[in-house]
Amino acid sequence: MFYDGYAYHRTTFEQTYRCYPSSFIDKPQIESGDKIIMPPSALDRLASLHIDYPMLFELRNTSTDSVSHCGVLEFIAEEGVIYMPYWMMQNLLLQEGDIVRVRNVTLPKGTYVKLQPHTTDFLDIANPKAILETALRNYSCLTVGDSIMVPYNNKKYFIDILEAKPSNGISIIETDCEVDFAPPLDYKEPERPVVPASAKGQAKAKEVAVAEAEPKFNPFTGSGRRLDGRPLSYEPQPVAANSNGQSHSVASGSESEKATQHTQGKLVFGSHVNRATKETTKVGAGKDRKQEEEAEKKDKFNAFSGKKYSLRG
User: Fold this and answer.
1) pLDDT at 14
2) Which stretch of DSSP H or E encloses residue 250?
3) pTM
4) What is the 3-state secondary structure (H, E, C) of 141-162?
């Protein structure tokens, strides 16, 4: 028959005993495992039943209904008394001389267990996996909710059983069990450094200063010349770049003066505006035409422009 995932025989061993820690008997080695010491009468009863080996038992505190599992080391205790590890009594919330119910049970072989150390000191051990494998050889089973004790280098390390598969109570005798670790109970994640707002503002100001220090490209800032050496009939307007890097033409001094004179003089409305612009255009065009004609006269080739001489003398 099966109850809560555990197998119970029709003719089961079930008995109540008074429990005491290992300090009451000269067997200190039981503190590093999960095995108890029972009276000889229990062996006689178990031998008459069809008990599966290794012998595993369920321990139950009837007053708190807390449950754990264990194996048996020897049958040399006084009648009506069992001796168990002190850490196991703490898991079951038992005091010296309290009543505990013992029942034989068959547990499935474990395939997975998740452990959580109480302190980070256990992770500081050079090879915690090897130490754990060595310590678990003294254990016959594990129960979810228990805190087992692993002794090493004159120090006791307590580890919680968080999860087990395929059931809450598993046998770890001659089985391959996958072990996973959870962060220790006292583990704290390292705090991330907080950058003050003033430092962020200084970093942004440096980026802006570097961007402004970079030279800006100003296209077409030179002056134009003709290939034939003739003077230009007009002066090119210099080009400057604005703050966005876009080029724009700059008016010459005479044009700007004319513009200021025009703006400072009388206001012209209607057709007078067009007439004034046409007159200025004609005057400018006439001056340019005269300059070109004079330049052509100077450069024009005149044949036989020297003095005349007679061959007769």
Assistant:
1) 92
2) none
3) 0.57
4) EEECCCEEEEEECCEEEEEEEE
Q: Look at residue 255 and give its three-state secondary structure.
A: helix
Place of tokens 């028959």: 1
3-state secondary structure (DSSP) of residue 163: strand
Give the count of alpha carbons within 13 A of 231, CB side only: 9
Paired residues of 79 in beta bridges: none
Residue type for 253, please? G
Q: What is the pLDDT of residue 183?
A: 87
**Among the listed residues 72, 76, 100, 66, the one whose alpha carbon sits nearest the alpha carbon of residue 25:** 76
The CB density around residue 136, as the number of other CB atoms within 10 Å, is: 19
- Residue ranges of E strands in 127-276: 141-143, 147-152, 155-165, 169-171, 178-181, 239-241, 247-249
- pLDDT tens for residues 14-54? 999 999 998 898 888 888 899 999 999 999 889 888 787 88
Query: Hey, what amino acid is at 74?
Result: E
Instruction: Please name the helix (run of DSSP H) or strand (run of DSSP E) that holds residue 73, with its range, or none.
Output: strand 66-74
Terminal alpha carbon distance of the chain:
159
Closest by alpha carbon to 146, among 58, 26, 221? 58
Summarize pLDDT for 257-307 with one digit per residue, the tens: 444 444 444 444 444 445 544 555 554 555 556 666 665 555 555 555 555
